Amino acid sequence: MMEVSVPLEDDHRVTFPPKLWWELDFTKMGNPFSVPCDPCIDKISNWIDKKVGYIHNLEENLKALVTTMEELKAKRDDLSRRVTREEEDRRQQRLAEIKVWLKRVETIEKKVNDLLSARDDELQRLCLCGFCSKSLRSSYRYGKDVFLTLKEVEELRSIVFQKVTDQAESAVIEEIQPQQIIVGQDAMLKKAWKHLKEDRVGTMGFFFFFI
């Protein structure tokens, strides 16, 4: 990449190295001249802003996390009552996606509680109006966790369920054939066998009553 040279008045020139372009306006010659920024500098600047924001916006993100989590819990309670009512009154069964959502809310609630339990200690580490910390690594990690958790809570809160239950599956009833019982079966067989052993008996008939 070539160097950028900008002419000024009195035949003076300002030369910029290839990796240090900045957005500059020169009006001394009467005509504005603009030098574009190097895209790498923009990326680095945005990256720094994002990382510093985890610490600088920590207190604001914590307040938003508390508020958003309260709204999510209220939505969870309302949805649970609705599901329970439809299950009991209409003999319905809750949808699988409702079970997954409720499980995610339970998991994120535990994570939020853990983050809030360390809130006071982390806020005390901040200094210079929240732009710095006495423990940069700890504050950065905590601030990032708070930010990402807040986004997840907002996502769960924004989900709308038009339907929460479905028709319950009918229980399969197997028909069992009743066992036929012959009254006095054992005694009758013994008596028949006794008669068959007699020489004068050639034919014998049986009459059964089934109950």
UniProtKB/TrEMBL annotation:
<feature type="coiled-coil region">
    <location>
        <begin position="55"/>
        <end position="89"/>
    </location>
</feature>
<dbReference type="GO" id="GO:0000166">
    <property type="term" value="F:nucleotide binding"/>
</dbReference>
<dbReference type="InterPro" id="IPR010978">
    <property type="entry name" value="tRNA-bd_arm"/>
</dbReference>
<keyword id="KW-0175">Coiled coil</keyword>
<protein>
    <submittedName>
        <fullName>Uncharacterized protein</fullName>
    </submittedName>
</protein>
